[in-house]
Amino acid sequence: MIVASLIFLFYIVMMLRNRKIELKYTLAWLFAGLCLIIVAVFPGLLRLLSNLLNIVEPVNTLFLFIIFFLLLILFTLTIAISRNAIRVKTLTQEIGMLKMELDRLANDKNADKKE
Amino acid sequence: MSPMDTVRGMSPYNKSKGLAMKVLIIIPAYNEEKNLSGLLDRLGCVCPEHDVIVINDSSEDNTLKLCRERGVHVIDLPVNLGIGGAVQAGYMYARYRDYDAAVQVDGDGQHNPEFISELLNELDKGADLCIGSRFLSKGGFRSTGVRRFAIRYFSSLILLFTGLRITDPTSGFRACNQKGIKLFAADYPRDYPEPESIVNAVRNILNVKEVPVIMNERKQGRSSITSMKSVYYMIKVSLAVILASFYGYGRTEADRS
Q1: pTM of the prediction?
Q2: What is d(CA B31, CA B34) in angstroms, rounded to the nearest whole number?
Q3: C-beta separation of B181 from B99 below 8 A
Q4: Which position has the higher pLDDT, B7 or A65?
Q5: Chain-chain contact of B73 with A97 (C-beta, under 8 angstroms)
Q6: CA 20 to 30 Å from B131, out of A17, A23, B17, B26?
């Protein structure tokens, strides 16, 4: 598990260095990766947390937190996608208008030349 | 009034105001090469004094070419946005060019340009948004069974949430003044926008009216609403209407601009 989480973290950092993903969207992933390493190194922490939450099997605590994180990240992505969709829409409309204005200018110029 | 004016087909809207109002006719078109030409011809006959703008929602056919050949102004969207995004582009343009009123006419030839003057007339009487309803009039095309049921359902939904009786909430044949242009340019639903935009308008204290119009059956091509999508359509619009009814939804965006 330690190895897996280390590889995971390493992969994220590599992607970040290559500028393939933005830091903004990876904070949650980085945090999740760190938590995984901590839990992997100190399994006692997980048992302690399970006792506090009255969960019999520590592995269920792990699942609980993983699911929580995944939901959180998914929802942030939905927000990000919606925002991008709205931006694309507005940009498309503006480009459409610009193209028309450009056509109009070109036509005016042609008309001037002919005269 | 000189005979010349009647020959040019002055609408009542112009007559009562004394000076010509700047009216923009917005035609959203997606693959409408077969229907558009006839519509443009008739617009040219009925109301040559109004400006026309076609919004080509990245059609795959020759819609754009046809418009260019005819010298009609076209907003050519590089990415397909759907009817809502296309119509909104038209309203954005109307706002940008400071038009006094905008009329939305579908590119499929369902709407008769003869009724544009009646829509504008209603604006003159104090309405901010005027919808052409095929159910207030006698005759004409009235849609098919299932769709009429859906229309009645939306109608009662709007009645429930706004207290306003709109007989034809899915009608895309509508005129609005600068207040409406401003609202729609800032905030217009993306797909299946008509019922939602009515509720939005009411929530933004716009005066919404209906006038009877006669519609035709679409001549060529298919409607954008297929049976597969109709379930999604019903659910989406219902949710949107309910959401739009909450005080403040959509309002802030319109106020900001």
Answers
A1: 0.79
A2: 8
A3: yes
A4: A65
A5: no
A6: B17
